[in-house]
Q: What sequence folds into this?
């Protein structure tokens, strides 16, 4: 069940059990349900069925990203991530965006693309013409392969014929057929691969060549999300920097990412800190989302930032994020992973497009928090406060035995926290 108000002041300072109680009181899940996360939301027997050679279950911390408002609706967002400060920073930035009206955005129709590679095509122009002339029949054939998706309102929408050697150079005689398929609320990978394999013979026949690879592309550039945010400059002030100066500095940091692929990579990593945490918590394929994000970032021919920030004519900081977001709310891991299912239920999203927008908002919040810190006081102060909090509360692990090469524990720094370790970090709610 969705939360009505994702603003929960003081949540950070509560003990873990009381945070669960807060969530139970506010509706997203009962205490009994939340106990599922004691063991990572996945039991050993299920893990054994999910992968090969299983020896156990590997856990990550699960926290709640708070203060999110997307298209006027509140979301408390489950985030699975090992890095301290990511959840705090995203929640803090979401609070600032909330004060500016929240995140707003749109998602494309959930269309993914399957690729069928055709090789040794004797005449690529003729193959292209023949395949396009058969377009309607090919789409019908594709839809016969996925009747249940068609029943749910999805299905094959369009055929496109590409000749990579024409666009990028490379091997002659290769034609690539793209089949664009509306996957509704599924991520769609299995569905797309089934269609690609089911169409391959017919397409090879039409082309006069032979079928090569048949698989989806993770550059899902027909399944984009577009999000916007606005933050009143005063809210961006830090101890040492005024709000308007911080807003200008964040805009400058954004231009740096636009101008330099080396910076763009790190800028986008800051976005993916938030994105991946939600993608993982909700049982989605984060490798696919990562691959899509970075390929999309490079489509102009140069690797670029997925988001941009600038100062608007009203003096507020404005931001925009555009990126692919291939995630589902049904099927895949969700069929087996109880924790992922519960995380999705707590979020209260049903449509994959809504989940995609919430994930984008968390990415954008993570990005804003990082840029604000970097462009004002530097990242280390808040980051290290969270790191110190983390290490101060973790029992010191037993030292590994001495290695034959003689590396002894005496040479390693102690893991005890420094004196004066803060118990809270900047930006927590
Ligand atoms: C660290 O996990 C993420 C940042 O490097 C992102 C950025 O530089 O924008 C702080």
A:
């Amino acid at each position: 069940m969705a939360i009505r108000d994702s603003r929960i002041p003081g949540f950070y300072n509560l003990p873990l059990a009381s945070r669960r109680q807060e969530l139970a009181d506010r509706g997203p899940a009962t205490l009994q349900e939340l106990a599922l996360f004691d063991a990572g939301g996945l039991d050993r027997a299920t893990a054994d069925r999910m992968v090969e050679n299983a020896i156990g279950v590997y856990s990550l911390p699960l926290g709640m990203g708070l203060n999110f408002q997307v298209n006027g609706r509140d979301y408390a967002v489950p985030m699975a991530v090992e890095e301290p400060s990511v959840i705090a920073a995203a929640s803090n930035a979401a609070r600032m965006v909330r004060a500016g009206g929240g995140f707003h955005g749109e998602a494309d129709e959930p269309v993914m693309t399957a690729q069928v590679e055709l090789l040794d095509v004797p005449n690529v122009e003729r193959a292209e013409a023949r395949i396009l002339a058969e377009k309607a029949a090919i789409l019908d054939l594709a839809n016969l392969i996925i009747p249940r998706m068609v029943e749910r309102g999805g299905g094959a929408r369009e055929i496109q014929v590409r000749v990579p050697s024409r666009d990028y150079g490379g091997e002659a005689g290769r034609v690539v057929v793209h089949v664009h398929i509306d996957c509704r609320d599924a991520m769609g990978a299995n569905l797309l691969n089934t269609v690609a394999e089911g169409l391959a013979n017919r397409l090879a026949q039409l082309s006069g060549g032979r079928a090569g690879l048949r698989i989806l592309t993770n550059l899902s550039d027909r399944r984009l999300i577009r999000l916007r945010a606005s933050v009143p400059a005063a809210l961006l002030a830090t101890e040492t920097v005024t709000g308007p100066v911080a807003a200008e500095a964040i805009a400058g940091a954004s231009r740096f990412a636009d101008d330099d692929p080396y910076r763009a990579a790190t800028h986008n990593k800051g976005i993916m800190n938030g994105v991946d945490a939600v993608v993982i918590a909700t049982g989605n394929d984060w490798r696919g989302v990562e691959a899509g994000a970075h390929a999309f970032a490079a489509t102009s021919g140069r690797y670029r930032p997925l988001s941009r920030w600038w100062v608007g004519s009203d003096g507020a900081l404005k931001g925009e994020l555009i990126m692919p977001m291939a995630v589902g709310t049904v099927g895949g891991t969700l069929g087996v992973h109880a924790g992922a299912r519960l995380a999705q239920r707590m979020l209260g999203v049903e449509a994959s497009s809504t989940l995609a927008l919430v994930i984008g908002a968390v990415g954008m919040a993570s990005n804003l928090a990082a840029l604000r810190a970097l462009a004002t006081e530097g990242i280390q102060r808040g980051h290290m406060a969270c790191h110190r909090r983390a290490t101060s509360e973790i029992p010191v692990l037993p030292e590994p035995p001495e290695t034959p090469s003689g590396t002894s524990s005496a040479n390693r720094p102690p893991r005890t926290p420094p004196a004066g370790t803060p118990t809270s970090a900047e930006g927590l709610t």
